[in-house]
Amino acid sequence: MRAMDPRAVGVFDSGVGGLTVLHECLVTMPNEDFVYLGDHARLPYGPRPLEEIRRFAREIGAYLEQQDVKLILVACNAATSAALQQLQEELTVPVVGVITPENRRVGLLATEATVDAHRYAELVHALDAGISFHPIACPTLVPLIEGDDPYGEETERAVREYAAPLQAVGVDTVILGCTHYPLIRKIFERVFGRDVTLVFSAEETAREVAETLARKGVENERRRDGAYRFLTTGDPAAFRELGRRFLQLPVRDVEHITVATLEAAA
Predict the structure, then answer these.
(1) Partners of 12 in the β-ladder
(2) pTM to 2 decimals?
(3) Which domain holds residue 143?
(4) Looking at residue 166, which CATH number applies to its domain?
(5) 14, part of any domain
(6) Which one from 76, 124, 184, 213 is the annotated catalytic residue?
(7) Which H or E element spans position 186?
(8) Is the model's pLDDT at 14 over the cut of 60?
């Protein structure tokens, strides 16, 4: 029998986008531990020169390697584009990247109360001011999902109606901000198609991480419950609040880490 490797998987991003990828990983690999680093102090990465993004990514990669992670997931489009190959060459641990759509338009489908509270908008913008945010209240979805025919034509018609304004502005990510919505995930997938990331979905990136761990023989013990923790160069309270809502999971530990600590690692 192969030895199991209890070390954590390191995940990093400039801001909130990588939380969708972390969510997918937690669903796909519930037995693994994760440490997520959000470089909120240096947001956004997008407009910066490639050399600068590459330097940030190398600092974070070196820091995570020093934390003894067994794999690093670059959950950031800009950092993947700028630095993936270099990180793979320089670091001794495996490095997996993600390419996500670049226009950074985020939609929210949720109940009226959630939309009216404006918390998602505040939290998203607190951590990444460059994201354009489009909330849509969906008052009929919960009654339809709880009703006699959740997978019927009426539900699909309602989802199409709520999706239309988000599709019109070209969102690339949709947060499904209600615990009922995963029950009709197939309808959401049908309506939005492959080009839009639905936050509850466990997709290619998580599968690639799982396959890489298996190929390298560094998976964790199957029957254990994994843990996850967060580091941010920004505001831990804002991160904790957004993380909880974005992941729909508890977020306990958020440590503040200084940019100077990252710079020193490289």
Answers:
(1) 37, 74
(2) 0.67
(3) 105-195
(4) 3.40.50.1860
(5) yes
(6) 76
(7) helix 185-192
(8) yes
